[in-house]
Specification:
Membrane topology: Multi-pass membrane protein
Distance between the termini: 34 Å
Largest sheet: 6 strands, mixed, barrel
Helix content: 40-55%
InterPro entries: ABC3_permease_C, Lipoprotein-release_system, MacB_PCD
Strand content: 15-25%
Structural class: alpha+beta
Keywords: Cell membrane, Membrane, Transmembrane, Transmembrane helix
Family: Belongs to the ABC-4 integral membrane protein family. LolC/E subfamily.
Protein name: ABC transporter permease
Number of strands: 12
Number of helices: 14
Order of helices and strands: HHEEEHEEHEEHEEHEHEHEHHHHHH
Shape: elongated
Length: 408
């Protein structure tokens, strides 16, 4: 088989085999470094995906609202009255102006996948002697369930929403002592009230949300909140969730609405994620430097130990370029082989950690995400690092004078 291989490959593999102990140590070091990179990257991706899933369980990716109401100073015939004190007015719940037109514009955008008009407001849910203040959301189920996957989190009943139905959170049901099929008296601040039947209980993954969540048909909410034909928000889902903020800014600039993306409303989370990504990048850099110095040190020692052999090869007609390639190949092979073992170590450690670490309720701490591109990336990183680390020793070996090397 060897006769079919180029000279550089034969020499590189032989040098690595002759120095087995050094080779094993450096492959072990590379494997540990790559394992750390795989473990940290996959775990961070899992934690981020878990948080995004929890956040988007109960909220849309972009929400359009009425712009803030601003008080303006009174003007006299001569201009603005400078002595007037202008206070921020109370923010009344009002409908989005011309919302059907805005909804149609959103549906026409290529980045948008789903649009749903909704109306929300505070009401009192009463059952017997128990009462709770809740956030009532009036929705169109066929469009809203494409944005917030309420049916996926139903723990009892069916997500049916006719004009006489209501779906409530599990914690709210516990506080009211209600089960599927019970009647709730829902009263608005205006005095309007409706008796609705609980058709389903939903668990949206947050105790606070489950204590306040209540869904009814859009027209039912419009009637209760005294806003017939109006909506307070337009909820939107986009193709690229990380582009939500840019899309929201464009929508706000082109329409008389306030556009909040899930990225803006969860700014603290993104600050934490960016900090974790920065830490992960620094870990990768220092691991790569450690691996590079380790490979370079081993190959420099190899050049010194094999000076006579290199001199003999040069005297036999081996070119400088061939000697250079021999040591570059050694660096690349060390990096590639180490990356294979490291990827297996990192994946194994992550699978074990995922199985052991659990949340208080027994559910997984983070989803297990092991993407092929992560392994390809780490293999390339380790191989390129090996090649770069081998450059200096390879140049030194190629520059050796055969006469001086043989005499030495």
């Amino acid at each position: 088989m060897n006769r079919w291989l180029p000279f550089e490959w034969i020499a590189a593999v032989r040098f690595l085999r002759d120095g087995r102990l050094q080779t094993l140590f450096i492959i072990g070091g590379i494997a540990i470094g790559v394992g750390v990179i795989v473990f940290m990257s996959a775990m961070l991706a899992g934690l981020e995906a878990n948080f995004i899933k929890r956040v988007l369980t109960s909220q849309p990716q972009i929400q359009l609202l009425t712009p803030d109401q601003v008080a303006r100073p009174l003007r006299s015939g001569r201009g603005v009255i400078e002595d007037a004190i202008v206070q921020r007015p109370s923010q009344r719940v009002i409908s989005i102006d011309q919302w059907p037109k805005i909804r149609d514009q959103m549906l026409a955008m290529s980045e948008v996948t789903a649009v749903s008009p909704t109306i929300s407001g505070s009401v009192l849910a009463i059952r017997g002697d128990a009462s709770r203040a809740v956030t009532l959301s009036g929705i169109e189920p066929e469009s809203y369930f494409k944005i917030v996957k309420v049916p996926d989190y139903i723990v009892a009943g069916e997500p049916r929403l006719t004009s006489e139905d209501i779906v409530i959170g599990t914690e709210l049901a516990r506080d009211l002592g209600a089960v599927v099929g019970d009647k709730l008296n829902v009263q608005a601040a205006s005095g309007a009230n409706r008796v609705l039947t609980v058709t389903a209980l939903v668990d949206l993954g947050s105790k606070g949300v489950n204590q306040r969540a209540a869904y009814v048909a859009l027209r039912t909410a419009q009637s209760l909140l005294g806003m017939v034909g109006g909506v307070t928000t337009i909820d939107i889902t986009v193709r690229d969730i990380y582009a939500a903020e840019n899309i929201a800014q464009r929508i706000q600039a082109a329409n008389v609405v306030k556009a909040d993306s899930w990225i803006k409303t969860n700014a603290q989370f993104f600050t934490a994620v960016r900090a974790q990504e920065t830490s992960n990048t620094l870990i990768r850099v220092f691991v790569a430097l450690s691996v590079a110095f380790g490979i370079a040190a081993v190959l420099i020692v190899s050049v010194i130990q094999r000076s006579k052999e290199i001199g003999i090869l040069r005297a036999m007609g081996t070119s400088r370029g061939q000697i250079l390639r021999v040591f570059l190949l050694q660096g690349g092979l060390l990096g590639f082989i180490g990356s294979l073992f490291g990827a297996a170590m990192g994946a194994g450690a992550l699978i074990y950690w995922h199985a052991v670490q659990r949340q208080a309720d027994g559910s997984e701490l983070f989803p297990l995400i092991l993407e092929r591109q992560l392994f390809v990336y780490t293999a390339l990183l380790a191989t390129v690092t090996g090649l770069l680390a081998a450059t200096a020793p390879a140049l030194r070996a190629a520059k050796l004078d055969p006469v001086v090397a043989i005499r030495g």
